[in-house]
Amino acid sequence: MEINKIANLLNLEHVKFLISIFKENNIEIRLVGGCIRDALLEREIKDIDTATTLEPQDVLSLLKENNIEYDDFAIQYGSIIAYPQNRKIQITTLREDVNQMGRHTNVIYTNSWKKDSARRDFTFNALYVGNNNKLHDYYNGQSDLNESKISFIGEIEDRIKEDYLRIYRYFRFRGLFNLPKTSLSDQKIVEKYIHESLAVLTNDVIRQEILKMFNMPFPLNCFYTSHQTLQKFKWVEIVKEHFIRTKYDLGLNKCLDRICLLYTSDAADEEDSVDLGGRRI
Predict the structure, then answer these.
(1) Measured CA distances, 196 to 103, 189, 191, 213 (Å)
(2) I need a surface site. Which of 62, 78, 132, 164 has the fewest CB within 10 A?
(3) Is residue 97 a contact partner of residue 106, using CB atoms and an 8 Å limit?
(4) What is the per-residue pLDDT across 131-161, written as a single tens digit (0 to 9) for each?
(5) Strands 104-109 and 95-101, how do they pair?
């Protein structure tokens, strides 16, 4: 079943076209990350990311040889946006991140897929698939995905200090699942660094991550510890206070204020699914 889900992704024309170019030149390229995760969950795939052993300048040369347009604004991180058949695919050279500070890092290119996977945040975001349909899973990400489990790769505190945005990604990915599995100890570690994150991340970066939460399949799970008690996670109130203190109206009026509306909408849907006799319809 999993093979069929991935095969559908690999059979997209622009994906097949790009992979074929690398294959003809005996260069390995694999799909990676969110597109694999979402394919396995049978969710809509919005972005397609790939990883390759080929270094960035050589990737550019290969794209030019095949008349494929590209953007190289992130080439210092080994990433290039290619447009095969006018469709967007990100290509990133296998790398290790060193001296990482938030979204910025020094990179060392590598031929090791395991080392590349180690820099990723959660186990289910470190899944790779080659053109032979083989799934490469270095941290039991598929098992975690099947169990609705959110697991960091490596030591949680280290990974958060590398990039404080992972705090908000942790809560965003709770919205992937109807009943997400997270440990209370992990949650406490994540919450310990919320205040610290506000001194590092800009308001706009935080707002953009929050907005993504509203588009998750189960968005209430990003904001509430319990749907029944309406108890919100600590981060919601802490960020709200920060937005008020810094007079960041955009984060309040077109972002956090949507949380209550989200719950009202979900409650209405629940009522619509029950008839007068209390039976689910």
Answers:
(1) 15, 12, 10, 21
(2) 132
(3) yes
(4) 888 999 999 999 999 999 999 999 999 999 9
(5) antiparallel
Of 10-19, 119-128, 203-212, 257-266, least confident by mean pLDDT is 257-266
* Amino acid of residue 88: K
pLDDT at 81: 98
User: Which residue matches tokens 């509430």?
Assistant: 224
Instruction: Provide the pLDDT for residue 257.
Output: 87
The pTM for the full model equals: 0.88
What average pLDDT does range 191-206 have in this prediction?
96
